[in-house]
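Worked example 3 (structure in, sequence out).
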């Protein structure tokens, strides 16, 4: 028979968004349980840049210090079209305090949040997978599988994950922070709208001669349809990402990276050393049609995803987790319902604007067609979210219409 338990809030997914949500709930003295089907935090840098509002939020939560110690501050995004520098976005002038982006590996952020939660008495329930969810208005019931490893094979041994126990968890609220393929979203029956076919990227993180790296984020757009991004990282490392027309299987080696830099940004070839890691990743621009059903809510990549350039989905998700936790702090009254309605309306509206690009289309009249065709990439390259993103994008479009005055 399944074990039974209760909690005030069950957070499903211990990625950055689930972690920050659980932390804020604890700061509000709300009883929270956080589960994740994985073994441990992310192993790599993944979403590697924290925007100014995110840095302010992390400072408020007291988790910014280790990140600031290890991270790299950069204050400019430089945009290149067909090899020519066409625009500079200066965060010191437009991004609000602290006026820079922090390049910090996602696993560093997650570890800082895990540690902050531990000091609040919350440990992540790793190896616990949400299977089923029933979510009427007053209370949700979740079926959770506890996973363990068993040795398999003979001669060549291997490990397989098997269910060791099943548990039924009752919670006043369930928060689905369980990423792009969200089980919570699926169990709630909330469809996600696709705005574009998935786009594939080859991503390389490589050691390089520090003196050959820029001190800004660089985005290279080709009028023929290509795009690439170069991020400097702390400790003489850089990240290159290249949009790939199709998911052809390639060996992701340093010589492959050299070839791609040569094709996309020949004037920006750093002196490359060892490859740290490389991956082929696909991103789909999508948005959940609703952020809640009954007693359950969604945040982060479970709600949305866009192109990866400026790490908008992760930064927006961190703000959402925090806002959702705050909205839940108002008992069951109409104030709480109003705050949750605001959360749903604002988050949905911001992402609908970002993905449809509708507020920007009037401003693109007169823009070089090569740039207009790449509008989604240009907007995704700006390190901002919400209304500030739309404002920054309008300023960028205006500047791009006057090439003589740029960069
Ligand atoms: C290789 C790679 C490179 C990336 N690069 C970039 C980039 O350059 N720019 C960018 O913007 N983003 C990038 N991302 C995406 C970025 O990592 C995500 O936007 C970010 O992690 C979203 O955070 P989240 O907390 O919403 O979801 P996630 O980090 O996806 O966390 C969801 C968690 O939920 C858990 N989970 C899922 N289902 C269940 C279940 N049924 N039960 C229990 N737990 C469950 C998962 O194990 C996971 O830990 C990259 C991702 C990868 C993998």
């Amino acid at each position: 028979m399944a074990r039974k338990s209760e909690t005030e809030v069950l957070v499903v997914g211990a990625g950055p968004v689930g972690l920050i949500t659980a932390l804020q709930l604890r700061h509000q003295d709300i009883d929270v349980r956080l589960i994740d089907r994985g073994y441990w935090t992310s192993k790599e840098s993944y979403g590697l840049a924290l925007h100014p509002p995110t840095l302010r939020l992390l400072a408020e939560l007291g988790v910014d210090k280790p990140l600031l110690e290890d991270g790299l501050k950069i204050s400019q995004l430089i945009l290149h079209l067909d090899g020519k520098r066409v625009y500079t976005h200066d965060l010191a002038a437009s991004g609000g305090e602290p006026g820079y982006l922090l390049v910090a590996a996602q696993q560093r952020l997650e570890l800082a949040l895990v540690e902050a939660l531990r000091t609040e008495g919350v440990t992540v329930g790793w190896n616990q997978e949400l299977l089923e969810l029933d979510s009427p208005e007053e209370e949700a019931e979740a079926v959770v599988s506890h996973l363990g490893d068993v040795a398999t094979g003979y001669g060549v041994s291997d490990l397989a994950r098997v269910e060791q126990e099943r548990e039924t968890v009752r919670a006043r609220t369930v928060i689905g922070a369980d990423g792009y393929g969200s089980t919570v979203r699926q169990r709630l029956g909330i469809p996600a709208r696709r705005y574009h076919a998935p786009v594939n990227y080859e991503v390389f993180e490589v050691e390089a001669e520090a003196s050959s790296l820029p001190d800004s984020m660089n985005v290279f757009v080709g009028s023929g349809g290509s795009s690439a991004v170069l991020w400097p990282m702390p400790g003489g490392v850089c990240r290159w990402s290249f949009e790939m027309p199709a998911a052809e299987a390639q060996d992701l080696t340093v010589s492959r990276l050299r070839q791609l830099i040569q094709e996309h940004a020949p004037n920006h070839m750093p002196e490359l050393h060892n490859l740290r890691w490389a991956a082929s990743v696909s991103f789909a621009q999508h948005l959940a049609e609703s952020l809640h059903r009954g007693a359950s809510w969604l945040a982060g990549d479970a709600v949305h995803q866009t192109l990866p350039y400026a790490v908008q989905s992760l930064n927006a998700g961190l703000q959402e987790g925090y806002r959702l936790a705050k909205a839940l702090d108002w008992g069951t009254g109409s104030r709480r319902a109003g705050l949750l309605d605001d959360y749903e309306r604002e988050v949905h509206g911001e992402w609908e604007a970002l993905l449809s690009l509708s507020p920007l289309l009037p401003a693109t009249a007169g823009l070089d067609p090569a740039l207009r065709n790449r509008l989604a990439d240009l907007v995704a390259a700006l390190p901002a979210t919400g209304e500030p993103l739309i404002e920054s994008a309008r300023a960028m479009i205006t500047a791009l219409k006057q090439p003589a005055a740029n960069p």
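Notes: Residues 3-48+109-194+286-354 form a domain with the FAD/NAD(P)-binding domain fold (CATH 3.50.50.60). The longest strand covers residues 158-176.
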